[in-house]
Design brief:
Layout lengths: L2 H9 L8 H22 L2 H53 L1
Length: about 100
C-alpha cells in the first residue's frame, strides 16, 4: 500500500464507526494534515513573517511614547531631589565657612 493510498483510506474513514481513542486520533490527524497542507500551499510562513515585522515596527514607537510619558514624573522627582541636595550643600558650605 502506497502512502497516497494509505492517506486516502484514512481520510475516507468514518469517525462514527471508530472507537473513542481511534476517533480522537483520526480527527487529530485530519486537523494536523489540513493545517500543514494550508501552511505549505498558501505561503503562510511568508504572511506570518510579514505580520511579525509589521508588529515589531508598530510596537517600537508605542514603547518610545510610553517610556517618555513614564519617565517624566521620575525626572521631576530627580530635579526636586537634586535641588534639595544643592540647597543643603550650599547651606553646609555657608555654615562651614
Amino acid at each position: 500500500m502506497t502512502f497516497e493510498e494509505r492517506m486516502e483510506s484514512w481520510w475516507n474513514m468514518d469517525e462514527r464507526e471508530c472507537k473513542c481513542f481511534q476517533r480522537w486520533a483520526l480527527l487529530l490527524f485530519k486537523r494536523v494534515y489540513i493545517t500543514v497542507d494550508h501552511f505549505i500551499h498558501n505561503n503562510l510562513g511568508s504572511y506570518a513573517s510579514a505580520l511579525t515585522y509589521n508588529t515589531t515596527l508598530a510596537v517600537v514607537p508605542v514603547l518610545a511614547i510610553i517610556f517618555a510619558i513614564a519617565r517624566r514624573p521620575f525626572n521631576i522627582r530627580v530635579l526636586k531631589i537634586s535641588k534639595i541636595f544643592w540647597m543643603r550643600l550650599e547651606a553646609f558650605a555657608i555654615s562651614a565657612s
